[in-house]
Amino acid sequence: MRIAMIGTGYVGLVSGACFSEFGVETVCVDKDASKIERLKAGIIPIYEPGLDTLVAKNAGAGRLTFTTDIGPAVKGVDAVFIAVGTPSRRGDGHADLSYVYAAAAEIAREIDKYTVIVTKSTVPVGTGREVARIVRETRPDADFDVASNPEFLREGSAIGDFMRPDRIVIGCETERAQEVMRQLYRPLYIREAPIVVAGLETAELIKYAANAFLATKITFINEIADLCEQVGANVHDVARGIGLDGRIGRKFLHPGPGYGGSCFPKDTLALAKTAADHGSPVRLVETVIDVNAKRKHSMANRVLDMCGGSVAGLTVGVLGVTFKPDTDDMRDAPSLDIIPILQRAGATVQAYDPAGMHEAKNLLPDVDWKDGAYQAATGADVLVIITEWNEFRALQLDRLAEIMKRPAIVDLRNVYNPDDAAKAGFAYSSIGRPATRPSTAKGATA
């Protein structure tokens, strides 16, 4: 089979590379000429474990190609996937669909046989219908169907998610389109991946409902964590106790500084906007959005509390700035709220992230970027863990205590055991667990 993938962002590039791994002849299209040239040279524009190897393998085999020219790319293909950005629209929070609709019109002008036009981007309910209208208006004689095929890729483990999915969702309304989509995903069907076939609107809503539910789980456990701190409970034991209930499940019950990234923030906003427009508000989701936004600001207060109420003139070391580990994605990362608040309060911030510093330098001015975790901790009055990269999980606490000005840690990801931190002489604050003070004579913060 042959497909075209319009857009070489996170979803388009990962999906295109994975389809080519199945033997599907795949061409990825992007208007950014410099990005296409880099991809042709084997330079991957995003950080995703294993993606460079996968792209190189399939490009070398001739199954994966890159171009800026949409015309030749979509001629003769069985399906065209629209995988362009749908960022939150300024002013109202709705998804900006201008790139999706522009792609639909371009595809309509170029297809030359029956083609399934697939929305892979996360799009609000009704987008597929509008794509179909645009194609018919642009090209009345076009032989096509529109399908919805939402992605469920987690940054940092996207290739595994594509190759071993929990489910594949296909929204389409003709047997012809369904057959094309089933053939494309046949390698995964052989692996017994469940395929959910539904209507266009249903498939579009599944994606938003899934992300909103996961965002709600995160926000729920974060609020329970705050309650745990007030009553002397341990949030991890609470999470395990409820997560072992099969009706609830253990995933997405780890407390932290709030959700971020490319999906949850914009998708919850878009769902709330769509629901309001249709006179059926999702008040639970609206509350989740509000609570999450406020939580990121409250995390900075934890640092202030650790420092006696003020960070003026102090040095704050920061470990991790991306919204999660194993990605360089800075979109809606908690660090974008926490670090500026500390800077405005008079702190000097020195930070390290294994993959995100290149992008972060453009978003977080006046940060002293370091080459490693220990360098970020050197001379710091307090060390703040914002992202739980693996290389931060087994730092030598004794060494940290020696190189820091004052031994104090605010662990927003609960990487360390409070007792271990106390034994190493640290004042230690985490999420949903009692704060600890040093159990040795090494000293505490003010």
What does the model show?
The chain has two domains: 2-198, 3-Layer(aba) Sandwich (Rossmann fold), CATH 3.40.50.720; 201-446, NAD(P)-binding Rossmann-like Domain (Rossmann fold, 3-Layer(aba) Sandwich), CATH 3.40.50. It is of the alpha/beta class. It is built from 18 helices and 14 strands. The relative contact order is 0.08. Strands 3-2-1-4-5-6 form a six-stranded parallel β-sheet, sandwiched between helices. The model is unreliable at 441-446 (pLDDT under 50). Helix 10 (200-231) crosses helix 12 and helix 12 (264-277) packs antiparallel against helix 13 (283-306). The longest helix is centred in the middle third of the chain and has 32 residues, at 200-231.
Assess the beta-strand content as a share of residues: 5-15%
CATH superfamily membership of the largest domain, which one? NAD(P)-binding Rossmann-like Domain
Q: What is the average of the pLDDT values?
A: 95
| Helix content estimate | 40-55%
Number of strands: 14
Structural class: alpha/beta
CATH secondary-structure class of the largest domain? Alpha Beta
CATH architecture of the largest domain: 3-Layer(aba) Sandwich
Please work out how many helical segments DSSP would assign. Answer: 18
Q: Which spans of ≥5 residues are poorly predicted at pLDDT below 50? A: 441-446
**Assembly state of the chains shown:** single chain
Overall shape: it is elongated
